[in-house]
Amino acid sequence: MAEFSPSGRDYARPARMRYEVVAMTQRNSIRVPSKRFSLTSSCLTLSLVVTACGAPAVRSGMGVGSVGRGLGVHAGAAPQGAQVCLWQDSLGPQPVGLEKSMGDTCSKALKSDALWRRAMLVMSLYGERLESVASGADADTTGKLEAALSGIGGPDWSDADDQASRDAVTNLVNQMSAATDSKTDLSKIVQDAAPPVKTLCDGLASYLDAQAQSLSTIQKDVDKKRMSRQIRRCGMLDKQTVCVQDSVVDRMVYADVFGQVVALENSTLEARDSAARFCAAHEKLAAAAANGQLSKKQTYFDVVEAVKVVPRAQPQWNTTDAPKGAEPAKAAEPIKK
Questions:
Q1: DSSP 219-251
Q2: Considering the entire predicted model, what is its pTM?
């Protein structure tokens, strides 16, 4: 084994001679008895001290991956197109004759919800892979576990009508699970993923935005029905028609539905805006990858600016004007003893 002797003196002879590596704030240095000298390189391999240096991290890729990873949080709460469909059906004209089952009424929305929840999960898993590779992990070993966690093993994983979005999800999973070669790096991963990510971004934004608008309308309709107090329940008693107006139970049902609609609208808007932030950031990253600018500091600043431009969803609370001619409800007078 080669000996390291900075001053020409033989330090290898003493049986228990030790070298102490001291990490300094501004520079690395090595201390030996009565000697001290600086290292100008960031990585130095010594016969007694070996320092491993990994691949340099790409901050822009790590940032975009982190934003994408957060999409998985929203996949459980949104989209909720089936719930929206059922509320719309309940608020519409009352059917004549037998009603269809709720599953048949909103089966299309159920399938679309399943598609887009899985799409958000896959985009989140892709974000994890992106963050790992950008941090210096081996591109050959990243993505395999993420692809397995997606639960997608072929093109027939969904029966939703949106074939383009289904294919985009499948394509993204196949890219993560595919064997890589020596030419596979962060730039190639980003450029290969750009087309399916763009397809999913466009479809997801449209789907969530439509749901948010529908929820806003439902919120107003529920409040109007509660304020109009025109719902009657009628029946026959001793050959006479008897009608009952809204009860306290009805008002509580209105309040419960109204609160659920508001909460779901807010979570839908948050999911939409989170997806928009990832999509805008990934677009900047893909452009930089195509131009060989991934490692540039300006690319990181462009990604930050793209994320910053998308605002955080604000809580929605729509108020409805009272119907014309309607008087505000009066509190019940206390019972006199």
A1: HHHHHHHHHH----EEEEETTEEEEE---HHHH
A2: 0.71
